[in-house]
Amino acid sequence: SAASLTPRGAPALVSRLRGAGADVDGIALAPKARSSLVTAPSVAPRMLVRGGSTKKLVASAPAKIDFALMAYFFFWYVLNYYYTLNNKRALTAAGGKDGFPMTVAFLQLVIGSIYGLFLWAAPDARKAPAVTSSDLIKMLPIAIFFAGAHAFSVFSMGAGAVSFTQIVKAAEPAFAAVLGTTIYGKSISKAKWLALIPVIGGVCLASAKELDFAWSALITAMLANLMAAFRSNENKKLMETAGLKERIGTVGNQFALTMILSAVVLLPVWMATEMSKWGAFVETFKQSKALQVNLLTSAIFFYIYNELSTLTIKKTSATTQSVANTAKRVIVIVGVAIVLKESLDPMKLLGCAIGIGGVFLYSMVK
Predict the structure, then answer these.
(1) Distance CA 354, CA 356 (A)
(2) CA distance 69 to 63
(3) Dihedral in degrees, nearest 10, Cα atoms 177, 144, 223, 225
(4) How far, in Å, CA of 210 to CA of 207, rounded?
(5) HSE toward the beta carbon, residue 360, CA cutoff 13 A
(6) How far is residue 58's CA from residue 55's CA, in Å, rounded to a whole number?
(7) How many other C-beta atoms can be found within 10 angstroms of the C-beta atom of residue 248?
């Protein structure tokens, strides 16, 4: 009966069992036993499994949606797209490849640096890093390669079609593989080397059918890949410095420091190449609303999308990163080509698909 299962009904239960001839003299109800009887209904259910053992049935918690990660992906894609678009518009307004490409690239870094400094100065925005002068010196190689990759990318987009530049830049893993094995002592598997064949083949195929082909666009895009590959390897070395991560603080601080140092590094290059044309640039800037708007917005978009991409990488797996980067590049190439009315020849699109597919394969194989 229900009463016999409670501490009060326990003596009656023992008496009934003794009357039935059962050996119950060794039975005693300890305080803990009484307590467990009272709380028995709250014990998690168990199921019988093969071998006679039992397993606790634990209700799985419903999967939570990471809205922050979704926002990172969304704005990373959107801002990358609009940076690419507005950067091309700024270059066109400034005269294209014969205008002021170095000035545009340099000012984008300067504006981004000012934005980073503002975030440190604004109340409750971002805590400034506690890096030393030695840390900044160690970051200089990364800044040099970051500035080089950015400047060459801007030159390439100014010299030819943006979609073509993006296709060539998709071949960056090939440069990273060669540098990693020849300079940084890394080993690359045979599968990864084989995956580079469609990458290179796709770029060649797209180049052959590029109506707006220019050797300057191809060469500067390849130099941008070289700089980016150096930066990636140097960044991995830098992050092994003891205590550096703690002194930098956040991903945002790391990118802000890289941006500021890159602007400083690019300053003497700009002075040697286009400072003499500064007066002409200022006059063009005053008269062109398109240059004013697109230069400012491209600089801000460049800063934010790079920071968001880093935050996204930190929150996802390597596989997710590969898929995301592949999808992002396709969106940017096709989207910008449509808006800017660039060539989308079927053979060019096939080369794009083969090249980007190779990049995805390279990222996935061990």
Answers:
(1) 6
(2) 14
(3) 40
(4) 5
(5) 16
(6) 9
(7) 22
**Calpha distance 133→358 (Å, rounded):** 41
- From residue 354, give the alpha-carbon distance in Å to each of 267, 320, 361: 38, 20, 10
* Residue 55: φ, ψ to 5°: -125, 140
CA distance 99 to 117: 29
The answer to whether 24 touches 30, Cβ cutoff 8 Å, is: no
| pLDDT one digit per residue (tens) for the chain, 366 residues | 444 444 455 555 555 545 555 554 544 444 444 444 344 444 445 545 555 555 555 555 565 777 777 888 888 888 989 999 999 999 999 998 889 999 999 999 999 999 999 999 988 788 999 999 999 999 999 999 999 999 999 999 998 888 888 888 877 777 877 887 888 777 778 888 888 888 888 878 777 766 566 788 889 989 998 998 888 878 777 877 788 888 998 888 988 999 999 999 999 999 999 999 999 999 999 999 999 999 999 999 999 988 888 777 677 665 566 567 767 777 787 888 888 887 777 887 888 888 888 877 877 776
Q: What is the pTM of this model?
A: 0.74
Q: DSSP assignment of 199-257, as one string?
A: HHHHHHHHHHT-TT--HHHHHHHHHHHHHHHHHHHHHHHHTTSTTHHHHH-SHHHHHHH
Three-state secondary-structure class, residue 47 = strand
Distances (CA, A) of 116 to 9, 85, 138, 141: 74, 23, 20, 20
Q: Coil, strand, or helix at residue 46? A: strand
**DSSP assignment of 54-122, as one string?**
EEE--PPPPPPP-HHHHHHHHHHHHHHHHHHHHHHHHHHHTTGGGS-HHHHHHHHHHHHHHHHHHHHHS
Structure tokens that stand for 153 in this block: 């990318």
Two tokens at 236? 């991995």
Q: Please name which of 150, 137, 139 lies closest in space to residue 299, comparing C-alpha atoms.
A: 150
